[in-house]
Amino acid sequence: MHFASSTAQLIAGLALAALPVAHGAISIGNQIREGGTHFNVAWVEGLSPCTTDVSIAPESASVCNRNFRLDGTDYYLVGCSGGKPYAQNPKRLRRAKDNSLYGTCSAVSKKEIDCKGNTHNVIKRYVCG
């Protein structure tokens, strides 16, 4: 009986893990490539940006009003107020299909994530959702 219960819990947990973002937080940051172009990137909070980040725009361009796709859903950031590539301060994250609000964005303490052995590192700057 205990085995069946544990198996059911495991299957339910795996099924939940396979679902799209649902409404987890989305992180925004900078992908730093040695000797290459740096990019503004997004990833699902809690996953490694080293392997799951997606490009929003080159770092020298605005992150706002540019669609990017995570887990099959298109999003875009709005309300940028900073003029520097590193400090664009997006205020909100919206879903592209219906312009609905996904969540507000908050700055976080700059955190460099070491992507050991990868072609880049990532600096986390904002969390939205």
TrEMBL record:
Domain of life: Eukaryota
Organism lineage string: Eukaryota, Fungi, Dikarya, Ascomycota, Pezizomycotina
Protein source organism: Purpureocillium takamizusanense
Signal peptide boundaries: 1-24
Keywords: Signal
UniProt protein name: SSCRP protein
